[in-house]
Amino acid sequence: MEVVTDTIYNKEKLQALELLYSVMDPELFVNIMDLGLIYDLIFTPQTIEVIMTLSTPHCPMGEAIVEGVKNVLAQQFTDHVVEVNLVWEPKWNFELISSEGRRQLGI
């Protein structure tokens, strides 16, 4: 994910992205950032909108991953409502996995 740093929420966005490294895919045991599941974060004074995807629309652990995202951000940003927007375009693929994620997966 390319981080856009031209908003007043740059510091918060970078902090939130760092927090998301702690959210693991429970099946693959790799964090969602290295898997390339996070497409963007949009901060407003009251909300954090997380635009993300899952490896498949019927991911059996999708609900757990989404709840992990909400929980980790809500704990740090208590004055914001965290909203997760699951999108299916662009479609997730293996090219979105970071080099660290590939190393962890052995690919």
Descriptive report:
Pfam families: FeS_assembly_P. The structure is a single chain. By secondary structure, this protein is of the alpha+beta class. It has a single domain, classed as Fe-S cluster assembly (FSCA) (GMP Synthetase, Chain A, domain 3). 35% of the residues lie in helices and 21% in strands. It is built from four helices and five strands. It has helices spanning 10-20, 32-35, 62-76, 99-105, and strands at 24-25, 30-31, 38-43, 47-52, 81-86. The strands form two sheets. It has a three-stranded mixed β-sheet. Strands 1-2 form a two-stranded antiparallel sheet. A hairpin with a 3-residue loop joins strand 3 and strand 4. The two termini are 20 Å apart. The model has no long low-confidence stretch (mean pLDDT 92).
